Amino acid sequence: MSDQTIASAQDRRGQGGVSLFLRRWLANPLQMGSVVPSSRALGRHVARLVERRDDEVVVEIGAGTGAISRALLAAGVPVDRLVLVEIVPEMAEHLAASLPGVHVVTGDAFDLVASLPRRMHGRIGTAICGIPLVLLPLERQRRFVDQVEAVAPGRGFLLYTYCITSPLPWDALGLSARRQAWTPMNFPPASVWRYRPQPSQP
Ligand SMILES: C[S@@+](CC[C@H](N)C(=O)[O-])C[C@H]1O[C@@H](n2cnc3c(N)ncnc32)[C@H](O)[C@@H]1O
After folding, report:
1. Ligand 1 pocket test: which of 87, 93, 157, 158 has the largest number of ligand atoms within 8 Å of its C-beta?
2. Higher confidence at residue 109 or residue 15?
3. Lower CB count within 10 Å: N or C terminus of the chain?
4. Which domains does the chain have, with CATH numbers?
């Protein structure tokens, strides 16, 4: 099958995604954080910021119906190097059915150490966060940062957001922050931030 055929087959299977997304938003708006999936434009911005050595995986946390995941695959992340973490079982099933070959984990962003197979710990080139962290209290945000650090030491993570300023209090969380992309071609317009652990003081 050609790359184009695979891509259009994935698109067709992904079409149920919008109604599933909306249904989940109605069921739990705070967990979803958005009414509609991310746009292709936002996906392309995220994908261009991915850093990965050949032996490393990319982990997308809060993969939803796979809008960003498809952009990562289209940008060249190998199917067997993409790992999706999604807390809603129905969405995880949708991801596994629509993106064959991708490793889908039904798991919790706040429990990445247990959710991700041990062989992947320390083998993560880029972690991408799609969960609405901005809505959470500082101690939950800290828990997420600590979990990422435990499985991807020193790497930090990318976070896409609708906030204009940093959605995380980066200094309080011991992180450095850089906004690396912005696009109006998303509803709502979105930025991509890169957070990394601050170097420890001597
Ligand atoms: C804003 S949506 C992003 C979906 C998709 N990545 C996109 O860009 O269209 C947030 C996703 O994070 C998932 N999510 C929320 N809390 C989570 C958690 N604690 N662990 C894993 N996934 C979570 C939700 O179920 C939802 O699919």
Report:
1. 87
2. 109
3. C
4. 3-197 (3.40.50.150)
pLDDT one-digit tens code per residue, 90-105: 999 999 999 999 999 9
Question: In whole angstroms, what is the distance from residue 133 CA to residue 144 CA?
Answer: 9
- pTM check: above 0.85: yes
Rounded alpha-carbon distances, angstroms, from residue 190 to 30, 49, 127, 148, 163: 18, 15, 18, 22, 7
CB of 109 within 6 A of ligand 1: the answer is yes
Q: By alpha-carbon position, which residue is closest to atom 6 of ligand 1?
A: 63
Q: Using CA atoms, how far apart are residues 30 and 131, in angstroms rounded to an integer?
A: 10
Ligand 1 site, residue 86, Cβ cutoff 6 A: yes
Q: For residue 16, name the pLDDT band (cuts at 50, 70, 90).
A: low
The residue nearest atom 27 of ligand 1, judged by CA position, is 64
Token pair listed for 6: 């695979």
Q: For 54-69, how does the pLDDT look when each residue is reduced to its tens digit (9 = 90+)? A: 999 999 999 999 999 9
Atom of ligand 1 nearest to the CA of 108: 20
Virtual torsion, Cα 44, 49, 55, 56, nearest 10 deg:
-100
